[in-house]
């Protein structure tokens, strides 16, 4: 029997928790194809998230980065708070891998805000445990201990409902808290936590976590000046990280091992490891991971600036820039593909009364309600939504079938009449007048179509408002 996307998503999560990463990746690829074919953005986003986490567990950072741009674009357009939380976690992992600490902490804390808002125990565990690790890296043991113990507390709630995942979290929390206690000089507690990690019945299925535990032992013995033992554990961690291609972790432990070898003055081993370390660094440089991440950051900032220039800051829909600079190209494409085009103009009836009676902030909320409603209702259509000014909006529609556009205009107006702003236990219905003009597959001149649509809007107002008038060119 074929799994539904919901069942598939759950199965992939369970496989990840059990360490069946290659199999989980194959299932995620299959599920993503199905979700993309059906435009099921809820599961598209979930499966992208699953794939990125699998690649992270496999140490495949390049694959993580290659997926992130598409994931971010879909997340920004269709994502819920849950997806934005996942996105910020993913970005924290990527920034961590290229040692951009400030951004790693920033993204982790943003993910925590979403996790607290959604009361998502899995993410609260993961994010607080990540924060524990980051505070350890900064040497802030008090803050690290607080974050690690919070992660432990949240993880208790998962023990019965998701035992495999809770076990995996326990290993990760043990590894990070062990580092805290070792830094504080409490070697007994640190070793006990690492012992728990390496004796877990699932540790052999989770190589990345086992590398962290072996590294923890190396760190423990280094701090105790038992340098021979530290070398042994650092070498085990390196060999295991190499076995599944985890270059960032391999490089990190090599750097620590070199420090111990210098203290021991083992010159032959220093020379050999240095050569291997330089070779690995060059290979990672060829892959140019840091540059890719920085390019990603540059592109993100550029897109933010472009969005600021092209989108209305209050409502999030397009502003007049689209009409002035991009609409003609949009119309030319419609002409080439012989689509019908409809220009629709609408505004809110008696909008000034909302502002006069309830204030301009209330009026702003009405505008946001209308814009969000339009975006949600028309998300699968070939349309552009523009705030023209004040409470007036323009919708540019195109489609191969004229009757389809006519129905879409009427259905959009009917939907808008269902909108209500709920405020302080009061309900305020929104009434909208609409005028529309559909072209004849010949006239693709915006000015003429707009003037006719605007005339229809005035007719709708004259008809008693809360109505829609549609004109068809022939």
Automatic annotation (TrEMBL):
Report domain GGDEF positions: 339-473
Positions of TPR repeats: 211-244
Q: Which UniProt keywords apply?
A: TPR repeat
Domain of life (superkingdom): Bacteria
**In this entry, which stretches build a coiled coil?**
none
PANTHER family per UniProt? DIGUANYLATE CYCLASE DGCM-RELATED, REGULATORY COMPONENTS OF SENSORY TRANSDUCTION SYSTEM
Q: Which NCBIfam families match?
A: GGDEF
Designated name of the protein:
Tetratricopeptide repeat-containing diguanylate cyclase
State the organism named in the record. Lysinibacillus irui
- Classification lineage: Bacteria, Bacillati, Bacillota, Bacilli, Bacillales
């Amino acid at each position: 029997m074929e799994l539904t996307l919901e069942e598939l998503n759950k199965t992939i999560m369970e496989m990840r928790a059990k360490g069946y990463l290659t199999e989980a990746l194959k299932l995620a690829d299959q599920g993503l194809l199905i979700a993309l074919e059906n435009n099921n953005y809820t599961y598209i986003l979930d499966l992208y998230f699953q794939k990125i986490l699998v690649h992270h567990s496999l140490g495949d950072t390049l694959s993580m980065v290659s997926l992130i741009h598409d994931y971010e674009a879909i997340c920004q357009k269709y994502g819920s708070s849950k997806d934005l939380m996942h996105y910020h976690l993913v970005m924290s992992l990527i920034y961590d891998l290229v040692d951009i600490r400030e951004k790693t902490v920033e993204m982790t804390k943003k993910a925590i805000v979403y996790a607290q808002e959604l009361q998502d125990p899995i993410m609260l565990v993961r994010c607080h445990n990540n924060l524990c690790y980051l505070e350890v890296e900064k040497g802030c043991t008090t803050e690290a201990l607080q974050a690690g113990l919070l992660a432990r507390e949240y993880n208790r709630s998962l023990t019965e409902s998701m035992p495999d995942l809770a076990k995996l979290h326990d290993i990760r929390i043990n590894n990070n808290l062990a580092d805290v206690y070792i830094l504080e000089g409490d070697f007994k507690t640190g070793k006990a936590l690492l012992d728990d990690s390496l004796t877990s019945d699932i540790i052999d299925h989770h190589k990345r976590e086992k590398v962290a535990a072996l590294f923890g032992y190396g760190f423990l013995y280094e701090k105790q000046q038992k340098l021979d033992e530290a070398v042994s554990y650092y070498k085990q961690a390196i060999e295991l990280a190499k076995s599944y291609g985890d270059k960032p972790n391999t490089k990190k432990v090599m750097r620590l091992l070199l420090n111990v070898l210098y203290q021991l003055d083992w010159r032959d081993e220093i020379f050999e490891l240095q050569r291997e370390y330089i070779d690995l660094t060059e290979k990672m440089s060829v892959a140019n991971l840091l540059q890719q991440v920085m390019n990603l950051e540059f592109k993100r900032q550029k897109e933010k600036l472009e969005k600021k220039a092209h989108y209305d800051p209050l409502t999030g829909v397009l502003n007049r820039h689209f009409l002035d600079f991009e609409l003609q190209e949009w119309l030319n494409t419609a002409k080439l593909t012989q689509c019908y085009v409809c220009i629709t103009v609408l505004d809110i009836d008696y909008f000034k009364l909302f502002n006069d009676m309830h204030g301009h902030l209330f009026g702003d909320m009405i505008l946001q309600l209308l814009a969000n409603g339009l975006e949600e209702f028309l998300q699968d259509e070939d349309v552009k939504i523009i705030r023209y000014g004040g409470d007036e909006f323009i919708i540019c529609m195109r489609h191969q079938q004229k009757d389809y556009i006519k129905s879409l205009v009427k259905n959009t107006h009917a939907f808008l009449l269902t909108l209500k702003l709920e405020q302080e236990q009061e309900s305020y219905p929104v009434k909208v007048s609409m005028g529309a003009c559909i072209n004849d597959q010949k006239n693709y001149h915006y000015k003429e179509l707009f003037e006719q649509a605007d005339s229809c809007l005035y007719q709708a107002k004259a008809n008693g408002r809360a109505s829609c008038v549609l004109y068809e060119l022939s």
